[in-house]
Amino acid sequence: MKIGILTGGGDCPGLNAVIRAIVRNSIAHGWECIGIENGWKGLLDFDTFPLDINSVSGILQKGGTILGTSRTNPYKFDNGEKQVIENSKKIGIDALIAIGGEDTLGVANKLAKTGFKVVGVPKTIDNDLSGTDYTFGFDTAVNIAMDAIDRIHTTAESHHRAMIIEVMGRHAGWIAMHAGIAGGADLILIPEKEIRLDEVINVMNTRGKRGRTFSIIVVAEGAQLSKADFEDSKLITQDEKLDAFGHIRLGGIANLLAHIIEEKTGVETRATILGHIQRGGSPTAFDRVLGSRFGVYAVEMVMAGKFGNMAALRGTEIIDIPIEEAVSTLKTVKDDFSDVARVFFR
Ligand code: F6P
Predict the structure, then answer these.
(1) Domain range for 77
(2) 168 lines ligand 1 (CB under 6 A)
């Protein structure tokens, strides 16, 4: 049995832990592994290399992915699906393990419906894939963002400023919520709820009344100003280009918000956009363990013929669910969790 492994979409800490675990468990079963470079692109271009035990030695603690990644969507190419299937046969792959988020796993799901033998491993720092409590990469991103908030806290306090920290999270505010609660944010703004200026100003005023001369506001990149405050409110983007899955590059809501807050309140305000720092570097212990568990389990799924399924974390257990379930709706922040954060917004 030859197992192909690919990593697609945005990289995240813990990918190498998954790759290592797949290779180690495959070898334990007497199977071989083939690394596919740069996501689905590698299958279109025949960019592959053998993965043996030595090629995954010393990678557990490394960020990024030794396989490389891309946002290539084979369904954007003429006969892309056919090419992926035929090229996999030519390369000698018996089963594929695709490690990715909604886009990469969306492709895997379509391929599985043709009978292609693929299992999925859920990856995204955004933690917005359904069916799994956590994706690996998220915990590292949250810890990096929390550390940044801690640092910004001390300078905010010294200068009596409002500080806005923009974190990733295109459609879901999981990083903002977790890093914000952990970092003691005074307000957390997420894509699931429009930003209301009266709420922002209210929190700052309430704090002012009890002698707090600074405020820490965490905002997810996908959060939007309310239409009631700004009729032409829209997502703040870095440019207008779409990727192969139709996503736009977000970034800049913190700058806009800082400008508005300073203008409306007279409080000196600064913005920090954390950006890709959240995706880089060494994974936390949680992500290394979760990635290792997912990788080991994915090989067992191949052995059991559970194609078209994805490894998922439910509570403390690793289970498998149809990839369809994971990619059909996004997992967003619900009110019960927002209500916990709200207790601290004053
Ligand atoms: O999907 C993960 C993610 O990090 C999002 O939070 C972010 O919007 C996007 O990727 C950034 O993508 P890129 O690295 O292609 O700019």
Answers:
(1) 2-136+283-328
(2) yes
